[in-house]
């Protein structure tokens, strides 16, 4: 399955022309100083394979490199699904040492294919226990984010209509023809929104829900970029494109991003979050089986759950830290929302049913 960017903050930043950390090259990840025989010099490069949205502040990364003695090479490999596919195909002879970006919608697939070597990262005890989904420590939780319906505040104020807050609200007549969502077969937020309905209504109820949502005029487009930056009336891109849908499936982090990159920067986010419509994604990293620099990979995993990286991450990738005492930046606390009760579906349940759910969803909503 093709998936889009996991969390829309970085995608939105890119759409607004914000530069992100570039990949440090591709191809052979082996450092010139490495040797294959016993007694060879210690490898000085550790390679992180990731989806395209990985980013970290230069000073934070350089501090890790100075303290550890390793140089970090970031090999970006497309969206999360494509990146994972490449690691499965190169199982046992990976392109790097650590893989970052597999989330709970794809986790069981990665674990079933045995691409990771177990490692309990230093600092894992500080990670919130609800995010530790693999008790064998083949993967380490790194971040979380919530897929949620966003709304255009100005539209609902002008119409004197309360914005919807729950999945149930979205099928009410007053919200007919207002929502645009992404295709669950081609988009990560689209899949997440489908999973929110599965979590809320169960195996049978979600189908009836989508039948009602279709009857209420939901619009389906291929991906997040089209939905958010073209069809949604509340985003900067959507305003320019004259989008006419005041409801869109995006992320809980989208309103803070609208503030950060607004020109001029608004005092208040122009968009809000329907907090009862959310599905939580958790992203993981793991030590790749057959890594050339296993010790460097372990050090890198330790770094990814360190407080330094966790507190840097929100404004770099627009996701939430998973470490208990990591503080969120003011942008998030002032303009973001905390999703208290997101919908969740167990990774093994997703793995077992994902393809059939998407096929059924397509027959109900798209065809």
Question: Care to describe what's here?
Answer:
Strands 1, 2, 3, 4, 5, 6, 7, 8, 9 and 10 form a 10-stranded mixed β-sheet that branches. It is globular and about 70 Å long. Mean pLDDT is 89; it is low at 1-8 and 10-37. It is built from 14 helices and 10 strands. It is 37% helix and 18% strand. α6 crosses α14 (347-365). The chain is α/β, with parallel strands linked by helices and 367 residues long. It has helices at residues 8-15, 58-68, 80-89, 107-112, 153-159, 188-215, 224-231, 236-240, 254-260, 294-304, 307-312, 314-317, 330-335, 347-365; strands at 45-50, 71-76, 98-103, 116-117, 140-152, 179-182, 219-221, 247-251, 271-288, 320-321. β6, α6 (188-215) and β7 (219-221) form a beta-alpha-beta unit.
List the helices and strands and how they pair.
Layout: H1 8-15, E1 45-50, H2 58-68, E2 71-76, H3 80-89, E3 98-103, H4 107-112, E4 116-117, E5 140-152, H5 153-159, E6 179-182, H6 188-215, E7 219-221, H7 224-231, H8 236-240, E8 247-251, H9 254-260, E9 271-288, H10 294-304, H11 307-312, H12 314-317, E10 320-321, H13 330-335, H14 347-365
Parallel strand pairs: 1-2, 1-3, 6-7, 6-8
Antiparallel strand pairs: 3-9, 4-9, 5-8, 5-9, 5-10
């Amino acid at each position: 399955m093709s998936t889009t960017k996991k969390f829309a903050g970085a995608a939105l930043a890119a759409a607004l022309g914000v530069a992100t950390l570039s990949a440090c090259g591709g191809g052979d990840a082996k450092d010139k100083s490495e040797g294959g025989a016993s007694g060879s010099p210690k490898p000085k490069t550790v390679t992180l394979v990731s989806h395209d949205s990985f980013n970290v502040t230069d000073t934070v990364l350089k501090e890790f490199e100075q303290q550890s003695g390793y140089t970090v090479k970031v090999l970006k490999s497309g969206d999360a699904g494509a990146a994972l596919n490449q690691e499965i195909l190169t199982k046992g002879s990976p392109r790097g040492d650590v893989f970052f970006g597999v989330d709970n919608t794809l986790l069981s697939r990665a674990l079933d294919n045995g691409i990771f070597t177990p490692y309990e990262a230093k600092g894992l005890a500080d990670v919130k226990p609800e995010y530790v989904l693999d008790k064998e420590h083949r993967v380490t939780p790194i971040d979380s984010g919530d897929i949620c319906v966003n709304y255009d505040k100005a539209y609902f104020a002008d119409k004197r209509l309360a914005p919807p807050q729950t999945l149930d609200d979205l099928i009410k007549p007053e919200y007919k023809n207002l929502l645009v969502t992404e295709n669950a077969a081609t988009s990560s937020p689209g899949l997440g929104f489908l999973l929110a309905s599965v979590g809320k209504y169960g195996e049978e109820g979600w189908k009836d829900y989508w039948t009602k949502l279709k009857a209420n005029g939901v619009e389906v487009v291929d991906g997040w970029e089209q939905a958010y930056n073209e069809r949604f009336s509340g985003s900067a891109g959507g305003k320019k494109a004259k989008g006419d849908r005041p409801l869109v499936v995006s992320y809980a982090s989208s309103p803070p991003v609208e503030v950060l990159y607004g020109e001029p920067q608004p005092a208040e986010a122009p968009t809000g979050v329907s907090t009862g419509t959310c599905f939580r994604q958790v992203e993981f990293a793991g030590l790749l089986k057959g890594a050339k620099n296993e010790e460097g990979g372990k050090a890198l995993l330790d770094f990814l759950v360190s407080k330094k990286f966790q507190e840097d991450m929100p404004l770099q990738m627009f996701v939430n830290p998973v470490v208990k005492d990591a503080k969120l930046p003011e942008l998030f606390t002032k303009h973001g929302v905390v999703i208290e009760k997101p919908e969740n579906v167990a990774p093994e349940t997703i793995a077992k049913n994902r393809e059939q759910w998407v096929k059924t969803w397509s027959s109900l909503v798209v065809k």
